[in-house]
């Protein structure tokens, strides 16, 4: 018994340090294992307001939303085939108010445009946001912005490989569609891609 007490007295600092280390490792283990507890939908490709959500636009991820879980669409909720109520950017978690079963975007039009290969950014892909400018045929008129922050819905990559005019499809409102059709008849359209 005396040897045991002497051992504790001589090594008390080591014993306390070892106990603290074990407690810290145990606490770290608990914290690391308390990771994501649920699943939610996240946007992979930008979705414009009123657009139908496809399987290519979203994916499910594990998240820990804690008390806010009820505000977000879980992976069990069917959102594919529903319509976006607002513009969703890549990386956004989809909340329950971001989707609807009925299309309220009767104003949205998918407008095809023929853009020259040199007037289109190389990295432009479906889901990107872009500005479209017109360079008028009349030399007396200068270039002008036609529409800003439109969503690129599709790009015909086959025509891109051949050169010449590239067919792109943008989703715009009725007024912007009219402006684009008018601008296309006035001159050459140039597309600039948003960085984010």
Plain-language structure description:
This protein is α+β, with helices and mostly antiparallel strands and 196 residues long. It has helices at residues 2-10, 12-32, 157-162, 174-186, and strands at 38-43, 58-63, 83-84, 99-100, 109-116, 129-136, 144-155, 165-172, 187-193. It has a five-stranded antiparallel beta sheet. Strands 1-2 form a two-stranded antiparallel sheet. The longest helix has 21 residues, at 12-32. The model has no long low-confidence stretch (mean pLDDT 81).
Largest sheet: 5 strands, antiparallel
User: Total domains, how many?
Assistant: 3
Helix and strand pattern:
HHEEEEEEEHEHE
Count every beta strand, where a strand is a DSSP E run of 2 or more residues: 9
Classify the helix fraction into a percent range.
25-40%
Structural class: alpha+beta
Strand content: 25-35%
Task: Using the CA coordinates, give the radius of gyration.
Answer: 28 Å
Regions with little confidence, pLDDT below 50 for 5+ residues = none
- As laid out across the biggest beta sheet, the strand order is 5-8-7-6-9
CA-CA gap between termini = 72 Å
| Mean pLDDT across residues | 81
Shape: elongated
| Contiguous helical run count | 4
Record keyword descriptors for this entry:
two-stranded antiparallel ribbon, elongated, 196 residues, 25% helix, Type Iii Antifreeze Protein Isoform Hplc 12, 3 domains, alpha+beta
In brief, what are we looking at here?
The protein has 196 residues and is α+β, with helices and mostly antiparallel strands. It has helices at 2-10, 12-32, 157-162, 174-186, and strands at 38-43, 58-63, 83-84, 99-100, 109-116, 129-136, 144-155, 165-172, 187-193.
